Amino acid sequence: MELRQQNLDLLDRGSFDVLVVGGGINGAVSAAALAARGVKVALIDRSDFANFTSQESSNLVWGGFKYLENYELGLVWKLCASRNQLMKAYPSSITELGFLATLDKTAPFPALLAGLGTLGYWGIGRFATKPPKYFRPNAIKKTEPIVNTSTAKGGVQYQDAYLKDNDARFVWSFVRSALDNGAAAANYVSLEKAEREDGRWHATLRDEEGGRSMHLVAKAVVNAAGPFVDGLNEKWGNVTDHRIVYSKGIHLIVPKLTDSERVLAFFDDTGRLFYVIPMAHRSVIGTTDTRTDDPNEGVLDEDREFLLEQINARLDLDTPLEKSDIISERSGVRPLVVASSGGDQTDVDWTSLSRKHEIDVDKPTRIVTIFGGKLTDCLNVGEEVVEAVSSLGIKLGPETDDWFGEPSDAEFEAFMTRARTLGLDRKPDIEREPTIAHVIWRRHGRAATAVLDAIEEDPSLAAPAVASSDLLRGELPVMAEREMITRLDDLLRRRTKLSLVLQRDELGADPGMDEVKQVLFSDS
Questions:
Q1: Would the N or C end of the chain have less CB density within 10 A of its end CB?
Q2: Which of 225, 200, 183, 252 has the alpha carbon at shortest distance from 7?
Q3: Which of 97, 464, 128 has the alpha carbon at shortest distance from 265?
Q4: Are strands 263-267 and 94-103 parallel, antiparallel or unpaired?
Q5: What are the residues whose beta carbons fall under 8 Å from the beta carbon of 193, sequence distance 6 or more?
């Protein structure tokens, strides 16, 4: 908790160039990009970082193959470029994999046309992935026996990528980057009031943990509140060119359905894509695409029933999946961008909306608002926010790209050599990695050497912290020091994916949880 306390002290009575409100992917990447350019940044979130939409994604890093249906070629070109950049920058964390789409009567286009589409998608993606393939129904069955091909007309496999760790962990990496470059950031800090006086923003903050009231001033504000950007702008009287509407997507995590590390894609009865996605030793089914006006709406019975019905009809399972098979659930509300002049939310054809982002700048009040967006496009968001802040007259340092990405290959090899001497070249229990050392490197990057230091001093720390997991005891003190874990769920749901792949009751009963709590919260 010491890291958080230090940052609360920095926020209180601090003077900043930019206050970033919202610690999801948009806010985290904005803070990281700005801090790397020498901008004095404050970043706050009223809950934990990535606690809302950014922890509920499909964990996919993709160019938006489905957007070809609406001829959004420019968006697909841009997203594919972002995907390629992220794959190169995060070779351990973001991995290429195939998307095998089975096309039956619910598909909106013929199989051969889809095959041509995959070729075009490969080209738009600069041929940076393996080439696509066309499958006849019998070839689908041979490749993935679990798929029900009784009504299949054919299939295609194209390549994209996914996050091997969870989305929230990826968001945290940008918060950590911002901290490393001098930003002040704290979770569980709400914005109670922000007013402009004498050309600056005067903000009153509240520490939701300790009740402490804090005050800071900033030259500009970045509204990165995700689904809540419109409410924040309305509170400030900020009129924007864009606004958002909500689309809810849910995922169900169930026992592993297939041993292959590929995504199985299907069209549901409404003609919308949904997937079976690998996650460690589990499978993720989703996502739905449902219109809602409530950003806090969770998983409803009808959502579960719909997804289970759809997947059971498309897989040859010995026993159909039931509600009792669901290990955990995710429900995320995507903020989709529309023009402010479009009337109220009820007149929007939300099914045709993509996950593009828009950034509005109000120069008189110095408010930058980020609408929409997705994980794949995060680096572009960061760079565009830097440009927007610069347009407000805030001075930037020299350009740099060292605010994102993994350490060098040489550092990785040095880490692996040392890890082998400590016996960490063993096979992980649940992760799809060659060794447990790869898991540690993927999770911690350069800080992984601190995990080795702990294990070298006490070899017993190489044991799992929790049964049926690949989180080591030696990782806990490193995470306690560096990751601002304030509540237990920050660790179980966001810094790791433990509560996604293990039953909550199972976690709660594990004897290792006592040590987890002791290490993380001993000074609280």
A1: C
A2: 183
A3: 97
A4: parallel
A5: 203, 204
Tokens of 149: 């091909």
- Report residue 341 as tokens: 């002049």
Contacts of 66 (CB under 8 A, 6+ apart): 273
Give the distance, in angstroms, between the CA of residue 283 and the centroid of all CA atoms in the same chain.
17
- Distance (Å, rounded) from C-alpha 475 to C-alpha 464? 9
Tens digit of each residue's pLDDT (9 = 90 or more) over 17-27: 999 999 999 99
Contact 162, 97 (CB under 8 A): yes
Tell me yes or no: is domain 78-164+246-336 CATH 3.40.50.300: no
The pair of structure tokens assigned to 357 is 């982002």
- Is the distance from CB of 53 to CB of 257 less than 8 angstroms? no
Secondary structure (3-state) at 44 = strand
3-state secondary structure of 497: coil
Question: What are 440's strand-pairing partners?
Answer: none
Domain 2-54+168-244+340-391 coded CATH 3.30.200.20: no
**By CB neighbour count within 10 A (0-12 exposed, 13-18 middle, 19+ buried), where does 436 fall?**
buried
pLDDT tens digits, 434-474:
999 999 999 999 999 999 999 999 999 999 999 989 999 99
Which sequence spans correspond to the domains of the chain?
2-54+168-244+340-391, 78-164+246-336, 409-521
Residue 255 identity: P
- Is 185 in contact with 32 (CB distance < 8 Å)? no
Tokens, residue 197: 């006086």
DSSP conformational letter for 245: E
In DSSP terms, 189 is beta-bridged to: 207
19: which strand partners? 42, 221
Tokens 């810094």 sit at which residue?
495
Q: For residue 28, what is the enclosing H or E element?
A: helix 25-36
